[in-house]
Input
Amino acid sequence: MPLHEFRPGRLIAGTAALGTAAAYLGDATGAWQAPWFTALPVMSGGLFLAAVATFVHYRLRRRRSAIAASRENTEAPASTSGSQATR
Output
């Protein structure tokens, strides 16, 4: 059993931040030249992709839970007589 649920948006945002940090680390050590504006497109693109992944994951979770709930409601109710009737 997993300790926490998978969050793809956080993974993508973290990867974009690490990529930006690696680019500036390489520039600081002299391994290559990174323009000053490198962080803008990398982080903007990464955050946009993270938002899309989070939205898709959210919609899939809601759809999965709705399908599971509809399967549970096809059986007879727990009590069909008295004031506790659900139908």
Notes: The mean pLDDT is 86. The helical segments are 8-29, 39-72.
